[in-house]
Amino acid sequence: QVQLVQSGPEVRKPGASVKVSCKASGYIFNTYGISWVRQVPGQGLEWVGWISDYNGHTKYAEKLQGRVTMTTDTSTSTAYMELRGLRSDDTAVYYCTRDRNYFDFWGQGTLVTVSS
Amino acid sequence: QSALTQPASMSGSPGQSITISCAGASSDIGGYDLVSWYQQHPGKVPKLIIYNVKKRPSGVSVRYSASRSANTASLTISGLQPDDEADYYCCSYAGGGTWVFGGGTKLTVL
Fold first, then answer.
1. Which residues of chain B neighbour A46 with C-beta distances below 8 Å?
2. Which of B38, B42, B52, B99 can bridge B46 by disulfide, Cβ–Cβ 3.0-4.6 Å?
3. Residue B58, CA atoms < 13 Å, CB-side half-sphere
């Protein structure tokens, strides 16, 4: 069965960086892209960005351009999302999702807390 | 990219039908057949319930249906059940490789 398993919660100070991992199993990793979606506690879903399944091409939400980088390691079927220059409003649960032009499988989420 | 517009909250009684709207623009909802809907129970991971405007994934109840008219998408839940109480989000492709979500609708089953 398809599973996306994410790394554990993180706490960072403002200005720091965080890198969240997402290990896929149950399907051929390089047949679908991965999108990342975040959710501030108590608020709605926000698309963060996407990385291609086969050529590593990326697309990021305009508001995060320059601070976010998505990568994959096809040898371990793992996707990564790094966010730099963290601010308090980056505090959110970050989800990885399998992207088939819709998000059919989701990771369990990783809470990233930015606090001084 | 502005979020799609959904009603913040809706309510219905068991057995009733409700329709949640999701208003966008010709650059997103009206421009592509790539509207999807997600159900999220409190503290849980979002779940795909509709994709490609009106298709239901395997295992999703037939009580969930969806449609689109111009730049507005709609999700209808018929025969409301207590377990339908959740947050619902629409999502659309917005061109240029980007996606946009609605603000979410909190559904209460009275």
1. 101
2. B38
3. 1
Which residues of A touch chain B, with CB atoms under 8 Å apart? 35, 37, 44-47, 50, 59, 61-62, 95, 100-104, 106-109
Which among A61, A95, A100 has the least Cβ separation from residue B45?
A: A95
Which tokens sit at A21? 């991992």
Question: Would strands B9-12 and B105-109 be described as parallel, antiparallel, or unpaired?
Answer: parallel
CA distance B98 to A112: 23
Choose the mutation target among A97, A98, A102, A108 for the interface with B, i.e. most B CBs under 10 Å.
Answer: A102
CA proximity to B64, closest of A40, B51, A17, B72: B51
Q: Is the dihedral of CA B6, B94, B60, B47 positive or negative?
A: negative
B10 vs B82: CA distance, rounded Å: 14
Tens of pLDDT along chain A (116 residues)?
999 999 999 999 999 999 999 999 999 998 999 999 999 999 999 999 999 988 889 999 999 999 999 999 999 999 999 999 999 999 999 999 999 999 999 999 999 999 99
CB–CB of A45 and B38 under 8 A?
Answer: yes
